[in-house]
Input
Amino acid sequence: MTLLDSILSANRKFTHPGAFPPLPKSPQKQLAIFTCMDTRLVDFLEPAMGIRRGEAKVIKNAGNTVIDSNGGVIRSLVAAIFLLGVEEVFVIGHRDCGMGTVDAEDLRARMVERGIDPQAIDSLEPGLPQWLGAFQCPEKNVEQVVSLIRNSPLIPKDVPIHGLLFCPDNGYLMELVRGYAQGEDSTGHNAGERIVSGAADITG
Output
């Protein structure tokens, strides 16, 4: 059985009429999450945040990086904010991210071996590792992405942009950037009263 066939078979066992009540398109908690596509976050990050199906918009790419200031991430956030009622954005990186250990030369060799035209690779701007979104420090990457989103002329200034770091081993969330203005959250309470959920130790 092919992988596609096994997935379709599982789907037929999963679905049946009336099992899943319809949900609205807009996120019930009015938040958007921009995070990494790492498989360790699947069915783990959202529960660690106390978020269930239908409560948040989730945007993912390799390394939760923003390469184009008007590209897909910003486009998705504009849609989430202006069309779907998102009021806060959470940029969430994670420890042990693969984008922090990219070997550009090895990657290039693998691509060429699989038939990718070397000229297509060399034409990438400003270069393969930068185009891919490789970075050295996940904390700095989150902070840079928060800054890029916050300073985008397409994102309204009244939308808090938070930055957090997730541990894929124990589910702990560490706050890096608090997006609320003047120390207050969206309800007007002191931001210090808010608690970031997770386990006891981010080091795992």
About this structure: The longest helix spans residues 72-84. The chain has seven helices and five strands. The beta strands are 31-36, 56-61, 88-94, 161-166, 173-177.
